[in-house]
Amino acid sequence: MRTHGPEQREAQRRGGLQRRGTWHNGEKVSCHISCPKRAFTEKIIEARAIYPGVEQQRLDDYFLCNEEKISLWRPRIFAGMAARLRNQWDRNEGLGQNHNAVKFLGQDFESLRAQCLRSRSLFEDSYFPTTTVSLGFKELGPQSAKTQGVRWMRPTEICRNPEFIVDGATRTDICQGALGDCWLLAAIASLTLNDELLHRVVPHGQDFRTQYAGIFHFQFWQFGEWLDVVIDDRLPVKDGKLLFVHSAEGTEFWSALLEKAYAKLNGCYEALSGGSTCEGFEDFTGGVTEMYELSKPPSDLYSIISRAVERGSLLGCSIDITSSRDMEAVTFKKLVKGHAYSVTGVDEVVYRGNMTKLVRIRNPWGEVEWTGAWSDNSREWDNVDRSVRGRLQNRSEDGEFWMSFSDFLREFSRLEICNLTADALQNSQLKKWSSNLFQGEWRRGSTAGGCRNFPATFWLNPQFKIQLQHPDSPGSPECSFVAALMQKDRRKKRKEGKDMETIGFAVYEIPREYVGKSGVHLKRDFFLTHASSARSELFINLREVSSRLKLPPGEYIIVPSTFEPHTEADFVLRVFSEKPADSEEMDDDIKAEIPTDNYLDESQIDAGFKSLFRQLAGPDMEISVTELQTILNRIISKHKDLKTDGFTKESCRSMINLMDKDGSGKLGLTEFHVLWEKIKRYLTIFREFDCDKSGTMSSYEMRKALGSAGFNLNNQLFQLIILRYTEADMTVDFDNFVTCLVRLETMYKTFTTLDTDKDNVIQLDFVQWIMLTMFA
User: Fold this and answer.
1) Does some domain include residue 611?
2) Shared domain check, 246 and 120
3) Is residue 189 part of a domain?
4) What range does the domain containing 398 cover?
5) Which has the closest alpha carbon to 274: 119, 136, 80?
6) Which residue from 89, 183, 659, 682 lies 20 to 30 Å from 282 (Cα-Cα)?
7) Domain stop point among 358, 390, 419
C-alpha cells in the first residue's frame, strides 16, 4: 500500500491507524496497516495483547508513512481445535525438547540475526518494545514514579567494552536491582554452579564482538516444553545505571539479558515480582522441586542437601514473614526476611575436637551477609585447621557466607530443592526416576469440579492413573513417587488482574473391578463411598503444588483440582516414581450405542400422526427446513416446563441432514416419524436429568444425559460440547440438547459409513472435507 486517500492522510495527521482487510467472526485475520511509526507500534502491542497466540510473518514489502519505513505483518492464525491438533502433532515429532525448542512468538534467532547483519542494522524487538508496556502495569506502570526518567540503552552505549560472559558465568555476576525478583536471581545464581545446565538456558555463541547485531536468545522450560526466546539488547536504565539485575563490575551483561528474556516470556518485568525459587529452578531445568519446612526437617536432611549439591541440583532457602512490615526486613545478624537465598555448598570441619556441619549460602543482592557464627570474619575460623580455613573462608563482601547447619535450621524457614535428574534423595545410591507428564485443563461447566468438599462435581475433574508395581527396595512395603501439579501461564495474566488459583490433588486406590482397565472415568458414586489414599499437603495459590508420597503397590488415580468449582485454568501434572511406573489419563473411551431407527411402512404409522403430517407438510407432502422449525417450535411452546429459545433454522437443517435419506433436503412421512420418535426420547432423557425441574439441565449433568442417550465422550470432546451448547449461566436448554445429540449422531454415522475397514481412520481430500463439514 503506497498510495493514500484523504481518509488515510487525515488519519496520519492525527497519528491514527487505517485498516483494510479480511474479517472473520468480528476479528481481523489479515490486514494492511498505514500509520505513523509511533501509532503503529502501539497498535501492534495492543493487538498482541488481544491475540497472544497469533504467529506473525514478516513481509518483504513495506510502505513509507510520515517519511518513516514501517514493516508490514501478516497474521497466520491457527485457532481452536486446529491449533490444538497442530501443537499435538508437533510435540509428537519432538518439537519442544531442549535441542529442538519452540520458537517463542515464531521468532527465529539465526534468521533474524542474519537479516540484521545483511542490512547492517541492530535488532529492535517489536514484541517487547522499549516502552512502559514492557516494564509493567502497576508499580512499574506508565504513571509510576519508578518508571519516570527510564531510558533504554544497549550495553555498547552503557560502557565502553561490554562483555557477555567473562571467564565463565559466576554467582557474583548477579546483583538485584529495583525489582522484587530475588527468587529468580537466587535460581540464576544456583544455575551458575553447573556449566552444562547454564548453557542449556544461555546458548553458546553470543557476545558483543563476533556477529554482533543487538540480538540475543535464551531458552526456558515452560509447562512441558522448551521455548527459545529472542530479545534485543536494549535495557532499562535510570540515572545512568541498569534499573534491574546487573553484574558487580557493571560490564558483564548476560544476567541482565537473561532477566529481560524471562520478562518477555511472562509479559513484562513487573510480572516477575514475587515468587518462589523453585519456579525459577524448574523453568531453567525442567526438573521437579521438593520443599522442606525447616521447623520439622527429616532426620537425614543434611545428607539430602549434600547429595543434592554433589549432583548439581539447585537449592534455595528463605525466611518466612509474619506481616508486610517484615518484607525484606534485616535481622540483627543481617539475614533478610521474605528474601530468596541460594544454597551453594556444604562442608564439615573439625572445630574444637568435634565435627561441625556447615552450609554455604548466597544473597543475590551481592551484599548484606550473615554476621553470626561462621560468617566471613567470625572467630570460629581461628579454631579451624589453616588449610581448611584457606579453602573455605571468604572475607569479601560478595553476598556469600557460611553458617552452621544448626543455625541454618534455626534461622531459615524453608528449603527448596530442584532435582535435575530426579534422583532418589532418600538413598545414597543414585537412581533414575521414571517420569510422566500430562497436560490438562479445568473448564467451567465440564471439568472444573472443585475439591472433595464439592461431591456433586468433584468427579468431573480430570483423572490420571498410576501403576505402582515395584517397592523401593527388597523388603520395603511401599513405592515412593513425587506428584507435582503446576498451573500454567498465571504469571503473565497478572496484567489482566488474574493471579494464581488455589490448587491441590487427591490420590485414590482404583477399585478391584477397574484394575487393569483403561477408558474408565470414575463417577460420583465412587467418590461418595471411598476415602482418599493420599493427598497434597495443602491446597494453596502457588504455581506448583508437589508432594513426596509412599503407597503400597497397586493402581491409583490422581485427581487434580482447584479448590472451588467453576474455576478455569490450564495445568500440567508430573509424576516421578522411584521405580518404573506406567501412567495414563483415566478417561472414558469415545463410543456410541445409538438405538436403531425404526422406519415403518406408511401403513404402519398411526392414522392420527398421518393426519397431522398432511396438515403440516402442505401439498408436496414433504417438510422443509422452515416448516420443520415452525412445527417444532409450535409443539415445544406447549411444554411450559421447558425453558427454550426455540429451534433455529440451523438446528432444523441439521435434523433434516440426519434423517434425509433421498437427498431431497426435505422429510417425508416415514423420515419425519423417525425424527419425532427421537425427539420424544430426547425429551424423556432431558426431564430425567433436569434434577431441579427448572426447565434446563446443568452442564455438569450433561455428561450423564449424553451417556443415557448412547454417547460416551472423553473430557476433551465434552469440553467442546459444553462450550458450544451451554448458555452463559452454564445451563443447557432443550433445543440445544436436541441439536447436540443430532449433530453427534450425524458425525458418528458419517464417520462409520466412511470407515470401511473399521480401523478408526478415514481419508478425505479437501473437497470431501469441506462438503462434509459445511453440511453436517
Assistant:
1) yes
2) yes
3) yes
4) 287-419
5) 136
6) 89
7) 419
Last residue of a domain, one of 276, 300, 315: 276
Least Cα distance to 281 among 160, 174, 191 occurs for: 191
658-717 pLDDT, tens digit each:
888 777 788 888 888 889 889 999 999 999 998 888 888 988 888 889 999 999 888 888
Same domain, yes or no: 611 and 684: yes
Q: Which of 758, 713, 765, 316 is nearest to 519 (CA)?
A: 713
Helices (H), 129-253: 132-135, 155-158, 182-191, 195-201
Residues paired with residue 463 on neighbouring β-strands, in sequence order: 586
Residue 257 forms part of a structural domain: yes
Rounded to an integer, the average pLDDT of 232-238 is 95
* 244: alpha, beta or left? (left if phi > 0; alpha if psi -120 to 50): beta
Distance CA 666, CA 623 (A): 5
What is the arithmetic mean of pLDDT over 500-514?
Answer: 95
The answer to whether the CB of 351 falls within 8 A of the CB of 380 is yes
* Residue 689 to residue 272: CA distance in whole angstroms: 47
Q: Is the pTM of this model over 0.85?
A: no
Write the DSSP symbol of residue 338.
T
Show which residues are catalytic: 182, 339, 363
Q: Which of 48-57, 111-120, 750-759 has the lowest mean pLDDT?
A: 48-57
Q: What total of structural domains would you count in the chain?
A: 5
- Mean of all residue pLDDT scores within the chain: 82
Together in a domain, 53 and 202: no
Do 293 and 263 belong together in one domain? no
Question: Could you tell me the end-to-end alpha-carbon distance of the chain, in angstroms, rounded to an integer?
Answer: 40
Rounded distance between C-alpha atoms, residue 205 and residue 197, angstroms: 16
* Residues of the chain by 3-state class (helix, strand, coil), percent to 5: 35, 25, 40
